[in-house]
UniProtKB/TrEMBL annotation:
SUPFAM superfamilies in the cross-refs: Nucleotide cyclase, P-loop containing nucleoside triphosphate hydrolases
Matches recorded under PROSITE patterns: GUANYLATE_CYCLASE_2 (PS50125)
Domain spans labelled Guanylate cyclase: 13-126
Domain of life: Bacteria
Protein name: Adenylate/guanylate cyclase domain-containing protein
Pfam families for the chain: Guanylate_cyc, HTH_77
């Protein structure tokens, strides 16, 4: 140890040195190593004395030295390496390669030693160096720079000043020293006579991010990844907003990994939901920063981040909205090169914030994610085929959380059964034994958001849950005239989605949760009755013109309300107003028949019918000014209407006859001639086994309607009679009957859109071979049926136009149209005309040959109905065809 016994105090620079590979060198040199070690010690001690270093410890080949001035310590290191390199060693391979490390910090000696963490940091800096290299900490580099600038040559004498004039400090970057949680920026001391090229320091490089290593692959979201990355590149604060479980955290982590190169200062993620010690402390821990006594952690963080190009991810901001907003504001205000991406169920509401709402997974991505997670849940082999998984994925609304839960359920249920249970997604997907985490179940996830709502927003959410689909602002205000603020809160917190229109949509999962909350409050009957009243209000608005006239039934106009009316009908059938439910059932009858939803309709009507008599009478009798006997008549009419609708939905002939017989008996007892004619006409719409008897019954019903002054009620019987006449080729009588029936059809709004009179007149013209009349009537029927949404009936019109093409000498077009009509019609093929289509298709096959016919038919089936309809409407009018008789007469 040197003779200097007074140890530096205050800002001290500590030096550690040792010989790299000393053990190998000792084994190689044997006894000669003692001489080498002694010479090495002599050289270094001479330098320490010259630059006023205090030797504290010598052990083997290492030194521990303290300096009062950082510039003197750096100069000593440079001089030591130069003298070691120029020394006359006994042999070229015996040159000791000394590594040196420096660190500067505040320390006070106790006796003849230091008890300070700064000493350990200096030792770790030295351990990171390579033989022949000098490393120093950022603290030493700053101290040297400051001292040299202050005195224009340093504070350690002329020798040190001369040496420092040739020194440069090379920034190697941030590294993690063993035993220390924070990062240390290391500098290499370079000067003439010192080696410059070394491997990277022998310590772990400081991490550039704290993004987690994911347990499963990231699936899909390519468009969202690109969109979000583009937003981040142009905006300092981007908030990713979406419902719980939509994948916000996973997406931002994936984007952050792509952006690592754009942020040399790193990407750092903290989660407000788990930052128990506070957000600034959590961010400091991620950055590797140490707390400073008496200083707020946020000040330490801001100081360290002030000039760093870095990205901070603030996850789950809704767990602590005020604190996350305050942290984001502080960082953005004080750190000009720092960007922030926040995630939550609501925006932060900061100036300059760009809010990006995360959409649900695209159908293809939802299927891919379900397929991947299902395979993982089932040992790598999904038990269901792709079609079943695709149908299940379509029911999960693009929610990654729901998909994860569904994949786990597939260990228990096949995909097809699980999909059928998703009318109640909470019951189908949640596990009663799930943990308390917000992502453990859909219920926990939604409860997390629900607890943050104000009372008015929570009340509106429960009210809107009664609606089956998206609603307009007018409908929201039907629930609450002053609902705009509450609606804004629901949209901000991702419980209601704003879709084009604008309309306001609630996911099935949110609706299921809100309905449970509604039931628990005891308000469900009141809210459901109000929804039923709204449904009747919209029914009147759709079916009645502003002048009070009943409008033509159009399935196109009904379609936006079908789901709502069916929901209201379920409530009415269960416990609500049965008469109101029956009104909805009658309105839905054409929709059920067109779309094949007959099973649900039959079940609802069965429930309604069982409750009808008492409920019908009670409702009417309660209306002011209504006689008691009128209530009985209305109840009978409602009962008959229920039977007629129910009979129209059943495919069982015996059940149909039973219902119609019951309806006829009740109609006879009512004394209402129109009601009786309606029932008798309905019984004839499905011809029996004896066409002659059915024809006689049709004539009798038509005559009865004429006698009792209710001819309109017999219109279905007129159509049945015209069809029977067409089948036995009494074409003149059928034509006259249909011509006289036009005024009947015009008086019946429920039948006007189908244009059945034009349709049958077209069929009569086809039988006569009058292509001009057939074309005119069939195109009118087709256009009307399309406009009013009667797709099945429109397919029949396309098939009839196919016959017109066949008769007009265009077999190729006829066959393509037949293929398209059959594909669109599906199970709604009409019994009466099926044989007619088949006969013409058989003729076309015989004329064209099997191969050509089958190819054209398949082409039509694959075109899609819209293109088939366009093709049918583009068929040239017979008057314009070469050789057409009427065209020839005009030419003459």
């Amino acid at each position: 140890m040197s003779g200097r016994i007074e140890l530096p105090s205050g800002l001290v620079t500590f030096m550690f040195t040792d010989i790299e590979g000393s053990t190998r060198l000792a084994r190689m040199l044997g006894e000669t190593y003692r001489n080498v070690l002694g010479a090495h010690r002599a050289v270094l001690r001479a330098v320490f004395d010259e630059f006023r270093g205090v030797e504290l410890l010598t052990e083997g080949d290492s030194f521990f030295v303290a300096f009062s001035h950082a510039d003197a310590a750096v100069a000593a290191c440079v001089e030591a390496q130069r003298r070691l390199a120029s020394y006359d060693w006994p042999r070229p391979d015996a040159v000791p390669r000394v590594r040196i490390g420096l660190h500067t910090g505040r320390a006070v000696p106790v006796g003849q030693e230091y008890a300070s963490a700064e000493v350990h940091r200096a030792a770790r800096v030295s351990a990171a160096a390579h033989g022949g290299q000098v490393l120093c900490s950022e603290a030493t580099a700053l101290a040297v720079t400051a001292a040299y600038a202050a005195t224009s040559g340093g504070s350690a004498g002329a020798a040190a000043a001369a040496t420092l004039a040739t020194v440069d400090l090379l920034d190697l970057g941030a590294f993690r020293l063993r035993g220390f949680d924070d990062d240390e920026r290391l500098f290499q001391v370079t000067a003439p006579g010192l080696d410059r090229d070394f491997p990277r320091p022998r310590t772990a490089e400081a991490p550039r991010h704290n993004l987690p290593a994911e347990h499963s692959p990231f699936v899909g979201r390519r468009a969202e990844l690109a969109d979000l990355a583009e937003l981040i590149s142009h905006n300092r604060l981007v908030t990713v907003v979406g419902p719980g479980g939509s994948g916000k955290t996973r997406l931002t982590h994936a984007v952050a990994e792509q952006l690592l190169k754009a942020y040399p200062g790193g990407v750092w993620s903290i989660d407000a939901a788990v930052a128990a010690q506070g957000l600034p402390t959590a961010l400091a821990a991620a950055l590797g920063l140490r707390p400073e006594p008496g200083r707020p952690m946020i000040d330490t963080v801001v100081e360290q981040c002030a000039e760093r190009r870095m990205l901070v991810l603030l996850q789950t901001c809704d767990a602590a909205p005020a604190l996350t907003a305050a942290l984001a504001h502080r960082l953005l205000s004080r750190c000009r090169r720092l960007d922030v991406v926040a995630t939550g169920r609501a925006p932060l509401a900061l100036a300059g914030e760009t809010v990006w709402r995360l959409p649900p997974l695209a159908p293809a991505d939802a299927f891919a994610l379900l397929r991947d997670r299902a395979a993982a849940a089932q040992g790598g082999r999904p038990g269901d085929g792709d079609p079943q998984l695709a149908r299940l994925a379509a029911r999960l609304e693009g929610s990654p959380l729901a998909i994860q839960l569904a994949a786990a359920r597939l260990r228990l249920l096949p995909a097809e059964q699980l999909a059928r249970r998703l009318d109640d997604p909470l019951g189908a997907l949640d596990n009663d034994a799930a943990g308390d985490g917000r992502h453990a179940s859909l219920t926990n996830n939604l409860a997390w958001s629900y607890r943050t709502l104000g009372s008015r927003a929570a009340d509106l959410l429960r009210r809107l849950a009664a609606f089956a689909g998206p609603v307009e602002l007018a409908t929201v205000e039907w629930c609450d005239p002053e609902a705009l603020g509450a609606l804004s809160e629901l949209a901000d917190k991702s419980l209601v989605e704003v879709v084009p229109g604008p309309r306001y949509r609630m996911s099935d999962q949110v609706r299921a949760y809100a309905l449970r909350q509604l039931s628990s409050t005891g308000d469900e009957p009141v809210i459901r009755d109000r929804h039923l009243a709204w449904s009747l209000h919209t029914l009147d608005r759709v079916t009645v013109d502003t002048d009070g006239q009943v409008r033509t039934v159009s399935l196109t106009e009904l379609s936006p309300y079908v789901a709502e009316w069916q929901a209201a009908l379920r409530w009415a059938a269960a416990t609500g107003d049965v008469s109101a439910g029956l009104r909805l059932a009658v309105a839905l009858d054409p929709w059920w028949r067109e779309h094949g939803d007959t099973r649900d309709g039959r079940e609802l009507l069965s429930t309604l019918y069982r409750r009808l008599p008492a409920a019908g009478t009670r409702r009417v009798a309660s209306e002011p000014g209504t006689p008691a006997e009128a209530g009985s008549v209305v109840a009978v009419a409602e009962s008959v209407a229920a039977c007629l609708v129910w009979a129209g939905l059943t495919g069982d002939r015996a059940e149909r006859e039973r219902l119609l017989a019951r309806a006829e008996a009740e109609a006879r007892g009512s004394g209402d001639p129109a009601l009786l004619v309606r029932v008798r006409a309905a019984r004839l719409t499905l011809p029996g086994d004896d066409p002659g008897a059915t024809e006689r019954d049709c004539r009798e019903v038509v005559a009865q309607a004429e006698r009792t002054g209710v001819p309109n009620a017999a219109f279905p019987a007129v159509l049945t009679l015209a069809e029977l006449l067409w089948r036995r080729e009494a074409l003149a009588e059928a034509s006259d009957l249909l011509g006289a029936a036009r005024h009947l059809e015009a008086a019946r709004p429920e039948d006007r859109g189908r244009r059945a009179v034009d349709w049958l007149l077209g069929m009569v013209a086809l039988r006569r071979g009058d292509l001009v009349a057939a074309h005119d009537h069939l195109v009118v029927a087709l256009r009307s049926r399309l406009r009013h949404g009667f797709r099945g009936a429109a397919a029949d019109a396309v098939a009839a136009i196919a016959v017109r093409c066949a008769l007009g000498g265009d077999p190729a077009t006829a066959t393509v149209l037949f293929g398209g009509a059959e594909a669109a019609r599906g199970a709604r093929r009409t019994e009466s005309f099926g044989a007619f289509w088949s006969a013409h298709q058989t003729s076309l096959r015989a004329a064209m040959g099997d191969v050509t016919f089958d190819a054209a038919y398949a082409d039509g089936a694959g075109l899609g109905f819209d293109r088939i309809v366009a093709m049918a409407l583009a068929v040239e009018h017979p008057d314009l065809e070469d050789g057409a008789a009427r065209f020839a007469q005009i030419a003459r």
